[in-house]
Amino acid sequence: MRNLIQQLTATFSLVARCPRTNELGVCVATAIPAVGSVVPWAEAGVGAIATQALTNTLYGTRGLELLKSCLLPQEALQRMLKNDPESESRQVIMIDAQGRTATFTGKACVDWKGHLTGENYAVAGNMLVGAQVIEAMAEAFEASAGELEERLLKALEAGQKAGGDKRGKRSAALLVMKRPEYKGVRPFIDLRVDYHEDPVEELRRIFEAYKAWSIQLRES
Question: What pLDDT digit, counting tens, does each position of 103-140 carry?
């Protein structure tokens, strides 16, 4: 597998589907700048992917192509891993438009590393302070209700509160694709904090400002 963009990212992320609206999304935070440009990938009516650790963006682009060709997430992921000589340095989580998931954490990823899956979501992290980070994210996501973007952001905040990346924090991102009929339209939400002392908190500030603007636009 040819690497278009590859970089080492110690990251915690969650991919999810809303069973009520069929929306798909990804949230992610890390200790390096500009995580939103490489880790989160999603397409309406197709799926959502986070590719991290030794990040290879082809797991995002190619992964969505394989899901679109009607492969199951596990089949798509195994096909990509099979052709990747550096697969043991990858961490990938995927979900499709039906809520089916696939996960992989390579043996060469830096501790703490691991992943969890639940109904309509998958969560993973590497180079974290401990398992409590992704456990807190899973618990927050399962306990939340409402719009997918709000649930994703709450999960990200829970992961940061539980300790997050053991090297610190620098960037975060939130990507949400709306219903399948929005195919071909830009993401409903694509918010990024590329470099900040508290990127998850800053992402919340930007999200609230974006939400207020959206409400004002609809009412005008």
Answer: 999 999 999 999 999 999 999 999 998 999 999 999 99
Q: Strand locations in the chain, DSSP E?
A: 6-9, 11-17, 24-30, 40-43, 47-56, 90-96, 101-105, 114-118, 121-125, 171-177, 189-193
CA distance 31 to 193: 12
Residue 210 to residue 133: CA distance in whole angstroms: 27
Residues 6+ apart with CB under 8 A from 211: none
Predicted structure pTM score = 0.92
Beta bridge partners of 14: 27, 123
User: Any idea of the CA torsion for 178, 184, 187, 192, to the nearest 10 degrees?
Assistant: 160
Residue 27: burial class (beta carbons within 10 Å; 0-12, 13-18, 19+): buried
Say which CATH topology domain 6-219 has. Answer: Glutamine Phosphoribosylpyrophosphate, subunit 1, domain 1 (3.60.20)
| Alpha carbons within 13 A on the beta-carbon side of 117 | 14
Secondary structure string (H, E, C) spanning 149-188: HHHHHHHHHHHHHCCCECCCCCEEEEEEECCHHHCCCCCC
Give me 14's structure tokens.
Answer: 């969650």
161: left (phi over 0), alpha (psi -120 to 50) or beta: alpha
Half-sphere exposure of 98 (CA within 13 A, CB side): 8
Tokens, residue 102? 């696939």
d(CA 131, CA 111): 10
Cα–Cα distance between 28 and 155 in angstroms, integer?
A: 10
